[in-house]
Amino acid sequence: MEQPSLPPKSPSSKSVYDLEFDVLTHCVNHLSLSDLSNFARTCKFFKSIAYSDSVWRPLFRNQWPKLESSSISRASSVRNAYLDRHAAVQQFKLEEDVIEKYWSFQGSGDSRCLLLDKDEIFLTSGSMIVKINCLSDGSHPLVYMRDHNAKITCMRLFLASKTSLFRNEAGHKDNFLVTSSCDHSIRLWWKGHCYRNFKGHNVPVTTLSDKLLGEGSSSTDNLIASGGEDGTVRLWSLRSNSKRGQRALRATLKGHGRAIKSLSVSGYKTSLLVSISRDAKIKVWDTAASSSACSSRCVGDSSVNGPPLGIKCFESLCYVAAGTSITAIDLRTMEKVFSAAAACQSQFYSFDVLPSKSLVCTGGRDKAMLWDVRRSGTNPEPVIEMEGHCGPLSSLHMDSYKIVTGSVADSYCNVWDTSCGTPLNSLPVGIPHEPELPIGCSAMAVSGSRIVTTTCGEEARLVYLRDFMNATCPKLSNEDRNCTSKFWEPQGISDGFDD
């Protein structure tokens, strides 16, 4: 193959282009996929290196050592084999050798609090937290954490390295758990034990912020925000040395007239907190403001129609799901830049956002709808409608590769292609040949190639984990082969790897 021409240079100068192809390839092998993508965009010469088999063969071998020969032989290049394999894994499009694990335990009460960490699963049952070790060989895989005295209302995971609390104990990617409860308290958990107990609410705590306030700023005083039944928002410092957390309360923000439904931290300025109450009133708070009057920290407000489902912030946009409508608000101007309503739907039961592609997915009574925020107009219509459930879609996940939907009325979760809405797979949430166990997806969590679902019965609860990373035998259908993306977007060397 003819080598790409090198950029012109002066006769006496020497640069990276003077290095041999094999030497540059060896250097590139130490780059991450994201860095490799940036490297390929530099010039044609670097692109030829970044796309070469010498670079992608070690990547494939390290990720799937047992599948290298069979997968690569069917592809036009090692890079294509890697990307095809990666997409199939992320889309759950494989049928054999899927790692499957399940656990059952006695528990009452339906709960949608479910989190999937690296090697652990966290879920709630009433006032109890259950931690499951996914790598356990069968001896004591479940740990019960019972410090709360009433129903747990919200559960979040935060990166420990972002705070000074665990500076000497935490690894670079370790997470700590935070929960809120109807017992008026907020608890911070570390390695299966209650590490802090924040008290200050006089009513049940309804929700927690989705991210730490001040994350990424020069200040080391990161804050957690909580919302209460009385409409107050409270800010808690993670620098408190008190085990009981009495001195952790930094501020109480007042302005809402109803209970707080959801809290989200702005992406473009991490000191901004967005809150929505059950009367669909939205407020934006500047938590870094030095004013002594907490009410003056409110720097913006808005409202939407219908009972609120939740809010999610990315960069300068705040996405709001309420009733049967989706709204995007620009936090810099508080103007509504997108608004759409679904016809023939009583309400939305779930929603997720893919900001890198300007997509919002909503779960309705019996189908999911995909919206493109860029297509703003008088009456925007959903770009894709995905039908295949018998009841309300209470569980929904979306990433660059797939949309996963689940309903308490169905015994399976459906997997769809994000780009075209084609059905990819259908995953049972119950165990085959075990009819006495509960059926129906009460909660779901997805992370890359893994999915965990829970079902609830009157007395028993079932947790089902699948991992498709080393699965084989692609599951193809005629619809899948004819799938054409409904969105234009430039393709990169590692698109979707960082979602």
Structure in words:
By secondary structure, the chain is mainly beta. The chain has a domain at 19-90: Monooxygenase, CATH 1.20.1280. The protein has a four-stranded antiparallel sheet with strand order 2-33-32-31, with no helix packed on it. Strands 3-4-5-6 form a four-stranded antiparallel sheet, with no helix packed on it. Strands 7-8-9-10 form a four-stranded antiparallel sheet, with no helix packed on it. Helix 2 (33-40) runs antiparallel to helix 3 (44-50) and helix 4 (53-63) packs parallel to helix 6. It starts with 20 loop residues before the first helix and ends in an 18-residue tail after the last helix. Residues 13-59 form the F-box domain. Keywords: Repeat, WD repeat. WD repeats lie at residues 218-246, 253-295. It comes from Stephania cephalantha.
Q: Beta fraction of the residues?
A: 35-45%
Q: From the 3D coordinates, which CATH architecture of the domain at 19-90 would you assign?
A: Up-down Bundle
Structural class by secondary-structure content: mainly beta
Low-confidence stretches: none
Number of strands: 34
| CATH topology-level fold name of the domain at 19-90 | Monooxygenase
Write down the overall geometry. Answer: globular
Percent range of helical residues:
10-25%
Regarding quaternary structure, how should these chains be classified? single chain
The whole-angstrom Rg is 24 Å
Average pLDDT score:
87
What is the spatial order of strands in the main beta sheet? 2-33-32-31
What is the makeup of the main sheet? 4 strands, antiparallel
Q: Tell me the distance between the termini.
A: 35 Å
Number of helices: 7
Query: What is the C-level CATH assignment of the domain at 19-90?
Result: Mainly Alpha
